[in-house]
Amino acid sequence: MVLNRNVDNFFQETEQVALAPSNLIAGIEPSEDRLLQGRLFSYADTQMYRIGANAGSLPINQPRAAVNNGNQDGLLNPGRTQGMVNYEPSRLQPRSSTESARYSQLTLSDTTQQQSIAREQNFKQAGDLYRAFSKNEQRDLVNSFGQSLSVADDQSKHIILSFLYKADAEYGSRVAKIAKGDLTRVKALAADLQD
Ligand code: HEM
């Protein structure tokens, strides 16, 4: 894939594009990473709804090889499908597969888990991002966040302001001013937070 030009038609080539981590060429396969594993079905599933069952047949999405995904019917189907088999494996219409493109096999052991990561650093990362912004970006963020927070209930407002203050004292103070928060209260709440 060579990225060397901008699109000619935004709708056809950007709005209708369907990029999915599950569309892989032979020789490249996903790792066991759980974030990626979730994405393998999530994108294709969303595109089935967003663009439809025939998304893969649009010029921007068409593979070099003919689309052979077993999707059935759907709006604007350009195919010339014979038969009704939309499942696999099938004795009636076997779908060929390429043996050399099969995923490699890996023996796994250990245990599954559901727990938060050991070191989150939620405040440090938010502070780094604020400090990386230009003066104008900081001003826009402070104004927008402050105005939205100004209508929140009193307790929620101060909890959120303490998060911002913990991320960056200047950031928290500036948003507190616009949101009409009590800075002494914000500082006291922030002092109890752990990164
Ligand atoms: C490393 C983590 C991830 C990266 C780098 C990533 C990246 C992206 C990008 C670049 C887009 C396209 C945005 C656009 O169209 O402007 C996207 C869309 C999307 N992402 Fe992710 N994502 C990640 C994690 C996830 C996870 C964990 C899920 C769900 C399990 C997910 C589900 C989706 C869905 C459903 C879309 C819309 C697909 C479509 O309609 O075409 N993503 N993601």
Q: What's the helix and strand layout?
A:
Elements: H1 10-15, H2 34-50, H3 122-132, H4 135-150, H5 154-167, H6 169-179, H7 183-191
Number of domains: 2
The number of helical segments is: 7
Can you summarize the main beta sheet? none
Coarse shape: elongated
Q: Spans of 5+ residues with little confidence (pLDDT < 50)?
A: none
Ions and ligands = protoporphyrin IX containing FE
Mean pLDDT: 93
Structural class: mainly alpha
Q: What is the end-to-end distance?
A: 41 Å
- For the secondary structure, the number of strands is 0
Compressed to H and E, one letter per element, the order equals: HHHHHHH
Helix content: 40-55%
- Give the amount of beta strand, in percent: under 5%
Radius of gyration: 25 Å
Short structural description:
This protein has helices spanning 10-15, 34-50, 122-132, 135-150, 154-167, 169-179, 183-191.
Walkthrough of the structure:
The protein is an all-alpha fold. The protein has two domains: 78 residues, no CATH class; 70 residues, no CATH class. It is built from seven helices and no strands. Helix 4 crosses helix 6 and helix 5 packs across helix 7. It is elongated. The model has no long low-confidence stretch (mean pLDDT 93). Bound molecules: protoporphyrin IX containing FE.
Entry keywords:
single chain; 195 residues; mainly alpha; 2 domains; 7 helices; 43% helix; binds protoporphyrin IX containing FE
